[in-house]
Design brief:
The relative contact order is 0.14. The strands form 3 sheets. This protein has a two-stranded antiparallel sheet with strand order 1-2. A two-stranded antiparallel ribbon has the order 3-4. A two-stranded antiparallel sheet has the order 5-6. Among the domains are: about 60 residues, no CATH class; about 100 residues, no CATH class; about 180 residues, no CATH class; about 150 residues, no CATH class. The protein has 31 helices and 6 strands. Strand 1 and strand 2 form a beta hairpin. The chain is an all-alpha fold and about 725 residues long.
Length: about 725
């Protein structure tokens, strides 16, 4: 583990990590663990801020340590698997020979031989084939999500041909509803949604989410090879697409996730998770703050992938996927109108906030002074709220003034000398201020000296007001100068320019980007900004003239060279790591990614016949949908703590055939399972079998599967003749 600290057994916290024992029994204030969860030390904070413990939880820990930290655990910690370990999922996919079975009449192919061999070993027998009516309803719902028509059911029941069922399977796999039905399962893995979630009391839409949904449906109906399917979702922008740009929509797999209040580190973490867990069943995101506790995934590997996605960005203008629709001109006119209204409001509001901040320098200095005695971040936030100040800006002023005080900045020297030891902001400081100005002499900025000398009140509050007025006056001078046909780069008065730099210099406390300013909006301002943004998004999502666009990622001009974030904290960068693939899934010396961000190289490593996870994970997902239970009970986690497969040789058989015999054909995999005797079994109860295998782990019968909501809804609409069979396009 990074830092060397383990908390999964008693000896772990007794020994501690790099900083020594984590707990001093009976003395919580001296325990590093308590200091970390209290967040008092910026260099010692755990867990990450987005998972910070509640006050009540911290108090429980404090009380436990005060009691002497009783810990009955005496066992050893779970030992992390090493790269190249013998864990089954990390071994190459093999092509096992079909086992010999006694009942030679039941199997329809090698898949069934693996099932039957296990049944016979367990002294179980397979169930008889389901009757025709049950079978046609089952396969219709499983493949298309719709029931058969009475005519289709009657025709199948009346067809005695042994090939009737195979013809039915081929017919259903060729129907467009196959893609719609099975796209739902992949979209669930891709955390698909038409909206960004319910944020700030508003539902924010992804205007072009539907293009990813349509891509998945079409890819499945076209039987796009699965390796190509995966590659396009990670790096379609790196592929030779010719004139058909529709595969660019595949990259919605990466971009449709949560936005985490636009925290880029969390967005990248989400993308790492959806790629590694969704495509390979590996919980790499667990290595964000430390080496993976169980799997052979060091935190260095996490940040290698972090570098891949940090080297990519979402363009402001998303690429078109086709020709402009006839109503495009009307759409564009309305969009420009709505965008202008939104942008004008935001610009005016941001400018008003900047003016207010620039005229509140002294107010923030006074709050920063009063906040020095507050060790708890929550109390500081309460102080800012009480004074109608922004807590984030206050933090920036606190940090800035600490530096100015150290270097005796001429602008703030009088303030920092006069305020020493003052606890009452209304206390008369006239005598002290006169001494300060006399002692500092020429070290004080001339405009500041004049402003403070003329201050009507000589209290700390009066000094703060003088600073407010001085900087407001300088800011007004700059605003007036900026109205010139050729705005100047600086104020002509050098003394005034020095003050202006406090407001406008890069990194200054009031140097806020638009996102920072949006956080400061009051409730009415925030509501209006969100309403105007929603009007733009709704237009893009619903107007018939809005051209479809792809939610792509593109490579940055210069790739990011990632560094490990100690304890997952971006403000604590550690060793540099190259952008490259996971060590546990690599053979030989790993080469760094060199082509742009590395997304294409990552995609090729995932969609490779040499990757032991990709095919196994996908086969297991498909099997689970058809058979009602997966071969591996944890479909999104094939790591060391996963359930071992109930039929390891069958899993490898299906994965091998999928890659090498079917050429990654998704429909080929579906057909192989659907035509098996195992799938066609009745779901009846056989008491003898149930006594030996009550959970049906060995598939002695077909599992009864609950119809999902979409299937239930569509069935009702279809039977009533009200189902809209139109495919694709914007959300209704």
């Amino acid at each position: 583990m990074k830092g060397g600290l383990r908390l999964d057994h008693r000896a772990g916290w007794e020994q501690g990590g790099d900083s020594g024992p984590a707990i001093v029994p009976g003395r919580p204030d001296e325990s590093l663990l308590i200091k970390a969860v209290r967040y008092h030390d910026p260099e010692l904070q755990m867990p990450p801020k987005d998972k910070r413990l509640a006050v009540e939880q911290v108090q429980v820990l404090v009380e436990w340590v005060a009691m002497g930290a009783p810990d009955p655990r005496t066992g050893e910690a779970f030992v992390q698997a090493d790269p190249g370990s013998d864990h089954w999922a990390f071994q190459p996919v093999s092509d096992p020979a079909p086992p010999a079975v006694r009942n030679r009449r039941w199997p329809t192919g090698n898949l069934d031989r693996f099932i039957l061999a296990t049944l016979e070993d367990q002294q179980l027998s397979p169930s008889p084939r389901a009757d025709a009516r049950t079978l046609i309803r089952r396969v219709f719902y499983d493949v298309t999500g719709l029931p058969p028509t009475p005519e289709e059911a009657a025709a199948f029941e009346a067809d005695p041909s042994p090939a009737a069922y195979a013809r039915l399977v081929d017919d259903l796999l060729g129907r467009p509803q196959f893609g719609e039905r099975w796209a739902r399962h992949w979209l669930d893995i891709a955390r698909y949604a038409d909206t960004k979630g319910y944020v700030f009391e508003e539902e924010r839409k992804y205007a072009f989410a539907y293009t990813f949904r349509d891509y998945v449906v079409q890819a499945l109906n076209d039987d796009k090879p699965f390796d190509r399917f995966l590659t396009e979702q990670l790096a379609a922008d790196h592929l030779e697409l010719g004139s058909d740009k529709r595969p660019l929509a595949a990259m919605g797999y990466l971009t449709l996730g949560r936005r985490f209040l636009n925290n880029q580190h969390d967005i990248i973490d989400d993308r790492i998770d959806v790629v590694t867990r969704g495509m390979m069943g590996l919980t790499v995101a667990c290595a964000r703050c430390h080496d993976h506790k169980y799997d052979p995934v060091p935190t260095a590997d996490y940040y290698s992938l972090y570098g891949v996605f940090a080297s990519s960005h979402e363009p402001g203008e998303k690429p078109l996927l086709g020709v402009e629709p006839p109503q495009f001109a009307a759409y564009l006119e309305e969009k420009n109108k709505r965008v202008k209204e939104r942008d004008d409001f935001i610009a005016e509001t941001n400018e008003a906030i900047r003016r207010k901040l620039n005229g509140s320098v002294g107010t923030y200095l006074l709050a920063a002074h009063d906040a020095e005695a507050l060790t708890d971040g929550g109390l500081r936030e309460a102080l800012a709220k009480k004074r109608n100040l922004d807590n984030g800006v206050l933090g920036r002023w606190i940090t800035a003034n600490e530096g100015w005080a150290t270097e005796s900045n001429p602008i703030f020297l009088p303030w920092n000398l006069a305020r020493k030891g003052v606890t009452n902001a209304g206390e008369d400081l006239a005598g002290r201020l006169a001494e300060v100005l006399a002692e500092a002499g020429e070290r004080v900025h001339p405009l500041v000296r004049d402003a403070l000398a003329k201050a009507e009140s000589k209290s700390l509050e009066g000094l703060a007001g003088a600073y407010d007025r001085l900087f407001a006056r300088v800011d007004a001078q700059w605003q007036e100068a900026s109205k010139a046909d050729e705005p100047p780069a600086a104020l002509g008065d050098a003394d005034a320019e020095w003050l202006r730099q406090v407001l406008y210099a890069k990194g200054a406390p009031n140097d806020l980007n638009d996102g920072d300013l949006r956080r400061i909006y009051d409730v009415p301002q925030g509501q209006k900004a969100r309403r105007l943004q929603r009007l733009v998004e709704e237009l893009e999502a619903t107007h018939p003239g809005a051209p479809p666009r792809a939610m792509v990622l593109l490579d940055n001009a210069k790739p990011t060279e990632p560094r490990i974030f100690k304890r997952g904290q971006p403000g604590m960068p550690g060793d540099a790591v190259p952008r490259r693939f996971l060590e546990v899934l690599s053979s030989g010396e790993r080469e760094p990614f060199t082509k742009g961000s590395g997304r294409l190289e990552l995609a090729k490593a995932i969609a490779s016949t040499n990757n032991p996870l990709t095919a196994r994970v996908f086969v297991n997902r498909v099997w689970a949908q058809y058979m009602g239970a997966p071969l591996v009970g944890t479909p999104s986690d094939f790591g060391v703590r996963s359930d071992p497969p109930s039929h390891p040789e069958l899993l490898d058989h299906l994965a091998w055939k999928f890659m090498h015999e079917d050429g990654w054909s998704v429909k080929g995999l579906h057909r192989r399972i659907l035509l098996s005797a195992a799938y066609q079994q009745a779901s009846i109860d056989l008491p003898r079998n149930r006594a030996r295998d009550p959970g049906n782990r060995y598939y002695w019968r077909q599992n009864r599967k609950r119809l999902d909501f979409e299937g239930m809804r569509d069935s009702l609409l279809a039977i009533a003749g009200n189902l809209d069979a139109a495919m694709g396009g914007q959300a209704v």
